[in-house]
Structure formats: structure tokens, C-alpha cells
Amino acid sequence: MFGQNIVMQKKPINCAISVKADGSDSIQDIKIKIAETFGGTLKKEDISIYFGPNERRIGKQFLGDPSVEEAVLKLKDFSVLGWLERFPHWCLSIKLMPAAPPAPGVATFKAAAMAEGKDPDQAVNEARQKGEIPALSELPSPWGPKAYEPTEGDKLLGPAKFPTAFNPLSDTPMVA
Length: 176
Hints:
elongated; alpha+beta; disordered N terminus; 4 helices; Ubiquitin-like domain-containing protein; 2 domains; Ubiquitin-like (UB roll); three-stranded antiparallel beta sheet; about 5% strand
């Protein structure tokens, strides 16, 4: 009810795209190149990009995420190319973009209703009628029609910022 069904292939599908060496490709440009590589079977909106040995997403975090402008966000903002020089076996990985999380307050009321053996959807509707959960018409994108207003916390979701003197190619001594 709260998760997603994910179908995993036993063998990953590999594809190659070209990016500018200076990292000036936008995340949107990269998603378009990936979608074209798959012959239109994927839309750029459905692609979630990961890098290296971790699960941190590059770009939008979920379908309809209003907090990330992928056309503005560049590959160089993530220092991906420097890491690829150091670890050439790493790669960009893609998955299908996850759905948006439940609207604020919904998961709490659904979980409580399920624990009590009640209908979760009915519990959410009752909470909305009582004003305990905001109506969808009062919420910003992706749950409602209002414009998204970025908060200070949204800055924490941006690309990892390393000190300007940091270089992944020279942060450890070379051993001969």
C-alpha cells in the first residue's frame, strides 16, 4: 500500500551516452539522451539517475518533484566526471522514477487506521473533514494545484557541495 512493486532484471541493460567533458550537460539533457538510447520506450520524466556505488539520486527525487529544475542542474554540480576519472568502473545507473510520497499527514493517518483495523482511506477522508490534514486543494505540487514555494530545507536536497579546493583525483596520496 505504501511501497512500490519493482521488477528487477537478472542482467542489467547497458547503454552508452556521450556527455560534454566540462560537465555542462544538464540533467535534463542527460535524461533525454538516455531516453533516446532506449528508442522512446522510456520518457525522460520516468528516469531516475544514480551515480557510483551509492543510491543518491541526481535530479528529481520522485515523479512531479517541483523542488528540482533539471534543465538548470548541471552534471558538473555533482563532480561526477572527476569521480569517473578516478573510478572508471563506476557508471550512471537508472531506475524508474518513484511515485511522489503521500501528501503531508496522510501516511500517519493511514498507518494508524491500519493498526486499528479500520479503512485507511476513510480515516484520511475523516481527518481532512476535521481539518487535521490539509485538503488537496490547499497543497502545493505534486499533491495539489498550488505553486511550489521552496523552503530553506530544500537547499539540503541539492547537489553535494565539496570545498572548492577538493579534487577527487588528488585527495589521497598515490602509492607506488
